[in-house]
């Protein structure tokens, strides 16, 4: 009986892995060993789609990334993990064990070439851990008219208002923030953003010989 429980959300990815032939799994392994760790999930999923002709590269990628906890330590037996995952998959889904040898073999190949995927998961955890992560941002601009006692008088006062909308994720929950800004606020933000971009460029240039930046 299997000792590893597989979440239902990764079942489709296991099915894909069980159906990959030798040529296809070789392409997946080539991808796993060479993809850019700094890419976002959607880009990587699309690259997988193009590579093996699947329209569900996101499911395959999600499943492969889910293996990270199983190989956190250096001394692990890939064959034992693959056997356990295979047994668990067929037990939980009730599927016929027609592709069990192929699934096990393909899992061993993926687990044996997991270094890049492990680095990707670790970098994502470090960048997202306990932080407020920006999702969307917009600035809305509006004009407000100020009427005096003679409301028909066209010589009115106008105020330009800006509202900064931020959508961010905190502890896996999406939250929103609305901030009222004037022209001086916008100029300050612009200056601060330009300074941050300059710092980013200088750091990348100064340390490019010693560090590989992925974000």
Question: In a few lines, what is going on in this structure?
Answer:
The protein has 215 residues and is an alpha+beta fold. 51% of the residues lie in helices and 17% in strands.
Characterise this structure.
This protein has 215 residues and is α+β, with helices and mostly antiparallel strands. The chain folds into three domains: 8-128, no CATH class; 131-181; 184-215. Helix content is 51%, strand content 17%. The protein has helices at 11-19, 22-34, 41-52, 57-65, 78-93, 100-112, 115-128, 183-206; strands at residues 133-146, 157-170, 173-181. A three-stranded antiparallel beta sheet has the order 1-2-3. β2 and β3 form a beta hairpin. α1 (11-19) packs across α6 (100-112). The longest helix is centred in the C-terminal third of the chain and has 24 residues, at 183-206. The protein is elongated, with a radius of gyration of 26 Å. The mean pLDDT is 85.
End-to-end C-alpha gap: 42 Å
* Number of distinct helices: 8
Q: State Rg.
A: 26 Å
Tally of DSSP β-strands: 3
| Total tally of structural domains | 3
Instruction: Give the amount of beta strand, in percent.
Output: 15-25%
Helix content: 40-55%
Strand order in the sheet with the most strands: 1-2-3
Structural class of the helix and strand makeup? Answer: alpha+beta
Mean pLDDT comes to 85
Give the biggest sheet: 3 strands, antiparallel
Poorly predicted segments: none
> What's the helix-strand series?
HHHHHHHEEEH
Shape: elongated
């Amino acid at each position: 009986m299997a000792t590893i429980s597989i979440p239902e959300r990764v079942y489709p990815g296991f099915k894909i892995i069980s159906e990959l032939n030798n040529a296809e799994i070789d392409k997946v392994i080539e991808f796993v060993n060479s993809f850019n760790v700094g890419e976002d999930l959607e880009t990587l999923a699309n690259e997988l789609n193009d590579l093996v002709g699947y329209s569900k590269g996101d499911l395959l990628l999600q499943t492969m990334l889910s293996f990270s906890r199983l190989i956190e330590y250096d001394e692990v037996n890939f064959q034992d993990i693959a056997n356990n995952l295979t047994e668990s998959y067929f037990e939980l889904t009730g599927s016929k064990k027609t592709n069990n040898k192929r699934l096990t073999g393909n899992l061993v190949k993926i687990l044996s070439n997991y270094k890049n995927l492990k680095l990707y998961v670790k970098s994502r955890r470090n960048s997202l851990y306990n932080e407020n992560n920006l999702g969307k941002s917009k600035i809305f601009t509006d004009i407000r008219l100020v009427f005096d006692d003679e409301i028909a008088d066209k010589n009115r006062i106008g105020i330009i208002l800006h509202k900064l909308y931020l959508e961010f994720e905190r502890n896996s929950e999406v939250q929103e923030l609305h901030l009222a800004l004037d022209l001086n606020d916008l100029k300050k933000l612009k200056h601060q953003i330009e300074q941050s971009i300059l710092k980013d460029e200088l750091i990348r240039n100064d340390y490019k010989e010693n560090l590989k930046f992925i974000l």
